[in-house]
Task: structure prediction
Amino acid sequence: MACNSACRVLTKFYQHILALVFAVNKINENVKILPNITLGFHIYDSYHDAKMTYRATLDLLFKGHTFVPNYKCGIQKNVIGVIGGISSDTSSFMADILSVYKIPQITYGSFATNYETRFPPFYHMAPNEYLQYQGIVRLLLHFRWIWVGLIAANDENGEHFLQTLESLFSKNGICSAFIERSTKHSYTVLSGEIFDQSVNIHPLFMESEANAIVVHGEITSITWVAFTIMVALRIDPQYKEKNFPGKVWITTAQVDFIVNIFLRGWDIQMFHGALSFTVHSSELLAFREFLQKINPFWTKDDGFLQDFWEQAFDCLFPDSNMQTQFPGTCTEDQRLGSLPGTLFEMSMTGHSYSIYNAVYSMVHALHAMASSRLKHTVMGKRNTLEHLKVEQLQFFLRRISFNNSAGDEIVFNERGELMAGFDIMNLVTFPNNSYVKVKVGKLDPQAPSGKEMIIHIERMVWHKNLTQVPPFSLCNEKCKPGYSRKRKEGEKFCCYTCALCPEGKMSNQEDIDYCVTCPEDHYPNIGQDNCVPKSPTFLSFKEPLGISLSFLALFLSLITLLVLAAFIKHWNTPIVKANNRSLTYILLVSLFLCFLCSLLLTGEPNTVTCLLQQTAFGTVFSVAVSSVLAKTMTVVVAFMASKPSNSFRKWVGKRWPYSIVLSCSFVQVGICAVWLSTSPPFPDLDTHSLTQEIIMECNEGSVTMFYCVLGYMGFLATLSFTVAFLARKLPDSFNEARFITFSMLVFCSVWLSFVPTYLSTRGKHKVAVEIFSILASSAGLLGCIFFPKCYIILLRQDLNKREQIMRRKH
Result:
């Protein structure tokens, strides 16, 4: 093969040829595989042209120069297997012919989207393409990159990639910031400048804020990206001012970092920190040693060596036909290891590893066929392959399973795909434009659930222009804790604004969709980014409010005892005898107990206090009101009995007032008994009424019974007020009806105000309202009924005489 000045090669592809040579040599040196058989191979160039691909495929099957397809003209070539081209188009064109003759094809390069319809099917030295797409999504989610740019080839494979990945994006909350399609360029040189009419000098990936960009396409797609960047930087100075690019490039397994002769001076550091999915490969030390021995004159049978060496090392062989003037002459001292990674890599690439495995797969299938029980009938001659039928080779090729020299298992699934995973490589560049690829993770579909992808972030390097590592790739800034995302109308769901959490809710993570409610025993803090435990609260004896109410209750209790003592001491005086002395004692004792009942509502609630709080107070207070009612009725009966020939005379001095007290109190006792037997009060925790506190309270159990107790007391008070109001003007020196009227007026006012206030208050203040109502209503009865009498007993004893009573009566 001879090249002129227009003949250019991609120097990195030369390693693929050397991998093939290396594999064949190793097999021929191994006496355990196909003994007494020497393998050979032919290499054909497709020139990236469909017509040339078809012709090369036919030339591979039949005698060259004057072949007639489907006819045996002269000596027909005995082809048993083919390793396809690096591009999907090349492999697809070859399959159109190879499938007619049922010759297996093992592809090592790009994926073909329609290989399922071929017969025989492709054998892929790479996993399923969909696995790689899932790996890309897993990688993006791992770093939380949800605003991602996509660059794909402008062909059928590119459209398939975009449709599949966009579907996976929408299912995983990722958005594509832009979609740009790369093209296959035809470069020309004019006055030392590079021109291509299809290049967009304002590419989307340079305008976008997305920091993560996925590149898919053929192996040379990265060349289009590099060329586009170089043209944009040269033509538009605004990109230089931005210190562009500072991106994370994510490339698929088909893409490699290569250059051609026109981009020899490109700056590979623009891709520093790139992440690449590559077909899993293992380092073969023997292959590196093999590469180190190669020099410009290592063999005369390599038709690609001279063109590769001249373009890689910028030199000329003495017999070169190149018209271009290179700096020097090619010498034996030049070694492949001195070339930068953009021109040639010393480590075996994923594609070369696939070629190596493809050769061994074919050989192991032949070896299994030769070792089978059918070897005599299948082959015709012992230890020869002259009569091999490729249809029979298919059976063994589908079922091969072996470990290569690196220890990796090689086996195909039912669709002819290699059952393996992908490696995730990190590109580390150097100032001399060379680079190394560091393995930073892997994607293994056969790993346990949840461990399919492993990433070693501590091994990664990132582009120097990135402001943060790992970088963000978002449509907008993340929402801080205490905020939730709110979607922007008319834009993709990855673009949003941040809204403050509503009252009572919080978010303790970044970029959360919804604010959440804290547990019942917690509440959001001021920043609404955390939950704080609620503090228990109840009306305690130790706090000012509890101390004040308790002191007031004890003080009123003491006053009641003093009044009772005064009445007992002056028990025989007219004013004490008036209106039934026994009822007065009952009323004072019940008021004393009412004041003490308020103490049951103070302190931490427990089972005993909850049972006694309402029932004890309701019963005692009913006795007090019943006593007031009986005293009022005593005034009425005494007045009516003073009239001659009145039937009420027979009731004077009877014990019927006690019947009123007992009967009225018994009704309340019955109500309380039903309450305690059906749904008694119990200690409870109210976690909802107050934001920052848990209310320790007594749950009424049955709200109906609670209001029945209050309602019955209200009924007695209303009845007493009515009777006392009607009897307030009866002529009597010590007529208590007027004082009872005032006391019942105070009582009803207090309890009518109590109900709405009680219902609208929460926590310990609710208890305080009830205590205040008890103390106020009881104090109203004590003050209005007994203070006037105490005034006479203690300060105006001159009025506490029978003569005064009789005189005032007349």
User: Anything to note?
Assistant: Residues 46-125 form one domain. The first helix runs from residue 14 to 29.
